[in-house]
């Protein structure tokens, strides 16, 4: 079993519709550590040693957040700047995260169609995630295609429930080592390859 850490960042969880439901579907799963960054650090005063210990004691890191201005909420940037230290996460002797698996799980107000070259946002969602992707690779982790829930503004409850169910399947698959990494590399989004990337549960 892989130890899965969910790093969750939403500055207003009380007003969330979609992340709240996604969180509810996974936070109580056995073998999962759920860590709410805005709850832990309302003043952005991050405990670096604590965060580094959390990372080293898990095999899989999931960064879950709403997309804010084509990026993460601000606390994630602060977390990256402080926690991913030179000589620890990257650079000479920086091997603490080597071999771990990293997944972005984000929600976006914009529709999937808006995240195309001919759409409102002009770029694919993977383009906006490039700084995270390269940070993850620099830290010698495996970057999985992101799990993206698009069109949150217009989602009805059944759509949200379906997204939450898919998210739970992904997190359970990561925990139970049922990920086909070769297949994952062929898909831009985890959602697009869900049936291929996740291996079946063997009864
Ligand atoms: C400050 C702010 C910036 C946002 N920027 C974007 C954006 O760049 N692209 C996008 O698709 N949605 C954007 N949104 C919409 C959020 O991604 C959306 O509200 C969120 O995914 C909904 O999830 P929730 O119900 O968990 O809050 C933004 C929302 C806020 C509040």
Descriptive notes:
Helices cover 35% and strands 14% of the residues. By secondary structure, it is α/β, with parallel strands linked by helices. It has a single domain (4-197), classed as Flavodoxin domain (Rossmann fold, 3-Layer(aba) Sandwich). Strands 1, 2, 3, 4, 5 and 6 form a six-stranded parallel beta sheet that branches. α1 links the parallel β1 and β2 (32-36). α1 runs parallel beside α7 (157-175). It starts with a strand and ends in a 6-residue tail after the last helix. The mean pLDDT is 97.
CATH architecture identity? 3-Layer(aba) Sandwich
Radius of gyration over C-alpha positions, nearest whole angstrom: 16 Å
Which topology does CATH recognise?
Rossmann fold
The proportion of residues forming helix, as a percent range, comes to: 25-40%
Order of helices and strands: EHEHHEHEHHEEHHH
The count of strands amounts to 6
> Which structural class matches the secondary elements?
alpha/beta
Small molecules bound? flavin mononucleotide
Overall shape: it is globular
The portion of residues forming beta strands comes to 5-15%
Q: How many structural domains can be distinguished in the coordinates? A: 1
- Average residue-wise pLDDT: 97
Number of helical stretches of at least 4 residues: 9
Please summarize the sheet with the most strands.
Answer: 6 strands, parallel
Instruction: Provide the CATH superfamily.
Output: Flavodoxin domain
- The CATH class: Alpha Beta
